[in-house]
Amino acid sequence: MNEKHLHLTIRSLLLQLKNSPTEAVIVADKEFAQKLTPKSQDFSQWYVEVVLKAALADYTDIKGCMVIRPYGYALWENMRDALDRRIKATGHENAYFPLFVPESLLKLEAEHVQGFAPECAWVTYAGNDELEERLAIRPTSEAIIGSIYAKWIHSYRDLPVLINQWANVVRWERRTRLFLRTSEFLWQEGHTCHRTYEEAQEETLRMLNVYREFIETELAIPIVAGQKSESEKFAGAQMTYAVEALMADGLALQAGTSHNLGQHFAKVFGIKFLDEDNVEKFVWQTSWGVSTRLVGGIVMVHGDDNGLILPPRVAPCQVIVIPVITSEHREAVIEKAKALHAALIEAGIRARVDLDETKSPGWKYNEWDLRGVPLRIEIGPKDMAKNQVCIARRDVADRAKKKIFLPENAMISYVRNLLSEIQTAMFERAREFRERNTRFVKTYDEFREIIESQRGFVVGPWAGTADDEARIKDETKATLRCIPLEQPESMGPCFYTGQPAQRVAYFARAY
């Protein structure tokens, strides 16, 4: 512990001893426990500590499975609700399909099975009885949904089918990390059927754009939208598109995918319809999804050495009210804090008030900073005497310089505007970071040097093959993240093969 931290802790102990001496030792223990490993020292350790200490999630005795704690689940609910509104606004409806997939059904689609075989978890017993057929716990739902759609769809009048489900899936990962890669996770998966290829392609890109707008608007994370290469596309898909984000350690995160499935699954599962021309045809399908790994993305893009920094639009708590209690003015300060909290709630702002008298105000400041609450309102006897409140924002490095004192009657309008300002500022900081860490190359030597020393997105003209991708991955651990939808008007030869290139590609090491 350094001298500064020890001094602050002693001050906190003295204050706590004055008000509640029996709790002082408990407070000291908790203050020590909240100290985080610096991001620059060990990013992976910092990430795990933030997730655990901010009470987003916890480990379990089941390998690779986590508990999403109430604070983390409230964050996911806000994200889910914001995306669900967008999905429904595009004409989709929610439904729910079975968790179990019969082995015979899954094996109908050989390429799909091969893609997920190492990750499939199987149910072989029901009670003491061995099942006649193994049941896969869904790694994804194309097989079970395809078999159902084959029963529902008969005529062109039944199309399009636009269905989404919010569910859990299981992929038995060998190496897991909280939120980013777990054996069981939560997600949404859309599955649609259309009359023509053009309609399916339009749907695929529409939902990709929904993801882009959702992630940038709600999560304040800038993304690159593009098409996956043949070697990186979803098993059984005709084309896969993705939204890719850059984390603060320079690694990429695939934030969501949208697949044009063509007629592949339709032919496997017999999803046919009688068209207007009285000819029986196979439907054209799409599927698309995002998952709880986006929670990990928020942590890694925005967090700092003090913990979480949550975008106001999805933060479970947007404002924390902290009374600065003294023995002489205890009742009055508590009542005022409660009144401020009630006013915020009435105004539709997600707020909490921390009335725990076993903890000092300083401890509470650090605790709610760790949990990423965008704004803090402090109220004490001096503020009450001046009919003012003190507001501090979480997203800036020097909090002391960003404390604002304003009249109490101006609090609501100011808080609303400041929350909007913080959301915008967070996106701009993340965008500027991505731009600083996106580098264009002309040669493979440049590519390797940047990947090894600086990470980030490496972009260059691309005319390589799947074998070329594999060699690059073996030599640098970087993968082709996407071929962006927005392409430059001109480019030079492929940085790897030297052949004429018609497009640029984004590469990065990734989670």
Summarize the model shown.
The chain has 511 residues and is an alpha+beta fold. Helices cover 39% and strands 25% of the residues.
Your description of this structure?
The chain starts with a helix and ends with a strand. It has an 11-stranded mixed β-sheet with strand order 3-7-8-14-11-10-9-22-23-21-20. The chain has a 5-stranded mixed β-sheet with strand order 16-15-17-18-19, with helices on both faces. The protein has a 3-stranded antiparallel β-sheet with strand order 4-6-5. The protein has 4 domains: 1-31, no CATH class; 66-302, Bira Bifunctional Protein, Domain 2 (BirA Bifunctional Protein, domain 2, 2-Layer Sandwich); 317-428, 3-Layer(aba) Sandwich (Rossmann fold), CATH 3.40.50.800; 438-508, Translation Initiation Factor IF3. Helix content is 39%, strand content 25%. It has 16 helices and 23 strands. The model is unreliable at 1-33 (pLDDT under 50).
